[in-house]
Design a protein that fits this description.
There is one protein chain. With 765 residues, this protein is of the alpha/beta class. It contains 20 helices and 35 strands. The strands form 7 sheets. The protein has an 8-stranded mixed β-sheet, with helices on both faces. Strands 26-28-31-30-29-32-33-27 form an 8-stranded mixed β-sheet, with no helix packed on it. Strands 5-4-3-6-7-34 form a 6-stranded mixed β-sheet, sandwiched between helices. Strand 3 (93-99), helix 4 (118-140) and strand 4 (142-148) form a beta-alpha-beta unit. The longest helix has 23 residues, at 58-80. The radius of gyration is 46 Å and the shape is elongated.
Length: 765
């Protein structure tokens, strides 16, 4: 007992701690039952001594009763195992957490500006006024500090004052943020009493480990209040990304070359985005476009250029960096294009001399870039000898068709040609990369062609769904290009897309259109009727395209495009037809250009992005193939390729859900090992994917625990709003057992003996 008292005196001398002692028992009865038992015992003793016959006076009997009650009381104390329980208390714990992850290296200022990083701003705030915030908290609390990135580390020690340790903090740009785990480690009761409050200096981005909400729940259960001081911009810095480049790889000189891409914008922009097209290594701007995206958005872009010299070129579309953009490297896409100087060889075949045939023949015959041949079924006997462009018979064999790049069929009577003509024409398109244009007319096309299987396969529409032939009444309507059609060069009648759209709205109306049937699933509807609809309610297609093997087929549901010449001459009529013929001749340009080629769009992808693999075949006639996907250190996987809906002669497939690592794709087959492509998949930039301050997440976590959220410039309010520092139990002291003492037993014996002696003196039993 003496030693224990000396220990208590030594602890009381220390200013940081003191001891608190309380009585404790192991009495298991309910309090009300205990009161009843004590009351009944006292009442019974009083009753017995009051009723007992004895010469002793009332005071003498009261003394005897008190001795009896004292005996009972000491017995009850021993039965309850009464003891003294002590705890040592001290200053409450307090936690500092400093975020040193990659996102704290962001400057939140315009690119290239000399501005402090987020961690620099935190250090400056903590160290201002001689680190008064740190020292005042240390005067009231037992403060601990930790930094957090990939791991949580202690800041400062007995040899390094906290202000000096804070001044030495630095952020690692390659690290993740485990804010939730750091909060958990501080409020974990297994390491000691939970801190009364934890203040976290961060941008609120937790990219690994437990979430802020889960950590807030743990802090609330531990009785710890969370306070967040947020640093960083509340809006994500802008980022412009150009992706999905699309352009023809082989074109003619003077073709209108359409360069397409997807513009993705992240964050808020305060200025328009200017896009420029130029040749790599040449600063001259060939085309430009200015857009004003709103918020996070994605939209297709298109720039046009007409190359005038043959050669191999690399074109670049680049978005000029905007204020505040951190990563301008993703602002560009490139295109490799071969420009050829060659004539387009065209066969113009018609069943009868309709006006569309006459005007188009006259136009193409005057164009030096077109080598024209014509065939007219209903013609005079001397037509072939009097017209230099005329041929006596329609080329019915593949070898005869090989002298042409594009064949235009204008309401040709199929009954006057052998059935084999259509299979040869099908091979001309699918295997040789030729182009075919089908122009509907009032007599034969499309109705007379339904019974020819090869032609049905060639047609971009389902001929079975076309209605029975009937001459529709004359009507006036404007061709309406679809957004997909406006992406192609054929519909670019002006120098820009906006100008072209305006021209299409002002052209002379057409006067007749046929119903070609429903477009096939892989077909592309390039223009529609403004008023008429199909049975399912969609606009009636007027221009429909389909890639067929390595070539392309285009169908016109009208035969009066010559009306576009009214008041303007050949300018728009010629531009549309020449560009369309050139576009359909591209398949022939590519036929002998390359052998087997396996491609991926980029060399590096983020995890979760689909990887599109493309296979270019030598003649475009291959309809199916497979590739082997070989991950580094993993099992091989076979992937089947399917024909592309937009690229003739190309097979493709998307690879999804790939893990991070390096991959090799090669063409399946014993003789195809050299046909391969490589790419890598990397983890997404978690720390830099969202750079705006997560004020909503920090505010919600603070409110859940009874704390508060402050912006960095409001941090001066923190000290006044912290909870009052209340001393907290630090450890339990060894208990002092009162019931198991010799003097307790001596007291019981003494009371019993005294009562017995006093009773004998009065001759009481």
């Amino acid at each position: 007992m003496t030693n224990h008292l000396l220990t208590l005196l030594a602890q009381a001398a220390a200013p940081e701690t003191d001891a608190v002692w309380r009585l404790r028992t192991h009495w298991t009865f309910a309090p009300w039952l205990t009161v009843v038992l004590i009351t009944a015992s006292v009442a019974l003793v009083a009753y017995c001594y009051a009723r007992e016959r004895t010469p002793a006076g009332a005071a003498y009997r009261a003394l005897l009763g008190l001795l009896r009650v004292a005996t009972i009381a000491m017995i009850l104390v021993m039965l309850s195992e009464l003891l003294l329980a002590g705890t040592r208390s001290g200053r409450p714990r307090f936690g500092w957490i400093f975020d040193t992850s990659g996102s704290m290296t962001v400057t939140d200022a315009a690119r290239g500006a000399d501005a402090p990083t987020r961690i620099d701003k935190v250090k400056a705030k903590l160290l201002e006024n001689d680190a008064s915030l740190l020292t005042q908290v240390d005067d009231q609390y037992d403060a601990y500090a930790r930094s957090v990135d990939d791991v949580s580390k202690a800041v400062g020690d007995a040899d390094t004052p906290l202000p000096d340790a804070v001044a030495a903090l630095s952020a690692d740009p390659d690290s993740m943020s485990r804010l939730g785990d750091a909060i958990d480690s501080l409020v974990d009761r297994s390491t000691g009493p939970a801190p009364q409050a934890v203040v976290v200096w961060t941008d609120g981005r937790s990219t690994a480990g437990r979430s802020l909400s889960a950590a807030a729940d743990a802090a609330r259960r531990a009785g710890t209040r969370l306070y967040f001081v947020g640093v960083g911009a509340e809006q994500s810095p802008p980022d412009i990304v150009l992706s999905d480049p699309l352009a023809d790889e082989v074109v003619f000189v003077d073709d209108i070359l359409s360069f397409g891409a997807t513009l993705r914008v992240k964050g808020a922009l305060n200025e328009p985005v200017r896009l420029t097209l130029r040749q790599e290594g040449d600063s001259r701007v060939l085309a430009d476009q200015t857009l004003t995206p709103v918020g996070d958005s994605s939209e297709p872009i298109q720039l046009l250029h007409r190359p005038t010299e043959p050669g191999d070129y690399r074109y670049v579309i680049e978005a000029l960096p905007v204020e505040g953009e951190r990563d301008p490297d993703n602002n560009r896409v490139t295109f490799d294009v071969q420009v050829r100087k060659a004539s387009v060889r065209v066969l113009l075949a018609a069943g009868y001399p309709l006006y569309e045939f006459r005007y188009l023949k006259s136009l193409l015959g005057r164009d030096s870039t077109i080598q024209l041949k014509t065939y007219l079924q209903e013609s005079d006997l001397d037509y072939a000898t009097s017209d230099q462009t005329a041929v006596q018979r329609f080329p019915m064999r593949r070898g005869d068709l090989d002298q042409f790049d594009v064949v235009v069929l204008m309401d040709l009577d199929p009954r006057l040609l052998p059935r084999s003509t259509w299979s040869e024409l099908s091979d001309f398109v699918s295997k040789d990369g030729g182009g075919v244009i089908l122009v509907a007319g009032s007599r034969y096309l499309p109705w007379s062609y339904k019974r020819f299987e090869d032609f049905r396969a060639l047609s971009p529409t389902d001929l079975d769904s076309a209605p029975i032939a009937s001459r529709s009444p004359p009507e006036q309507f404007l061709l309406r290009p679809t957004p997909l059609g406006m992406q192609g060069a054929s519909f670019q009648l002006g120098d820009s897309r906006a100008e072209s759209e305006s021209i299409w709205r002002k052209l002379t109306p057409l006067n007749w259109a046929a119903d070609l049937g429903e477009p096939k699933p892989a077909a592309q509807v390039l223009a529609t009727h403004p008023n008429r609809t199909t049975p399912d309610g969609r606009p009636l297609p007027l221009v429909v395209s389909q890639y067929f093997g390595s070539g392309q087929v285009l169908a016109h549901a009208f035969d009066s495009s010559y009306l576009w010449r009214k008041r303007v001459g050949d300018v728009y009529f010629a531009r549309y037809w020449v560009q369309t013929l050139r576009r359909l001749a591209h398949g022939r340009l590519k036929r002998d250009d390359r052998g087997w080629e396996l491609m991926v769009e980029r060399g590096e992808y983020e995890r979760g992005e689909p990887v599109r693999v493309r296979l270019r075949t030598p003649d475009g006639g291959v309809r199916s193939a497979a590739v082997l996907l070989q991950p580094e250190g993993g099992p091989e996987q076979r992937v089947e390729l399917a024909p592309s809906a937009v690229r003739p002669g190309v097979l493709e497939a998307d690879l999804n859900d790939l893990a991070a690592g390096s991959y090799r794709v090669l063409l399946a087959g014993a003789d195809s090992q050299a046909v391969s492509a490589t790419f890598s998949v990397v983890n997404p930039p978690g720390e830099f994917a969202q750079l705006e301050m997560n004020s909503a997440g920090m505010r919600a976590a603070a409110e859940r625990t009874g704390g508060a959220f402050y912006k960095l410039d409001e941090a001066d309010q923190l000290l006044a709003n912290l909870p009052e520092a209340q001393r907290v139990p630090i450890e339990s002291l060894p208990p002092i057992e009162l019931w198991n003492r010799w003097w307790m037993l001596a007291g019981i014996c003494g009371c019993l003996c005294a009562e017995w002696i006093l009773r004998k003196r009065k001759a009481m039993l």
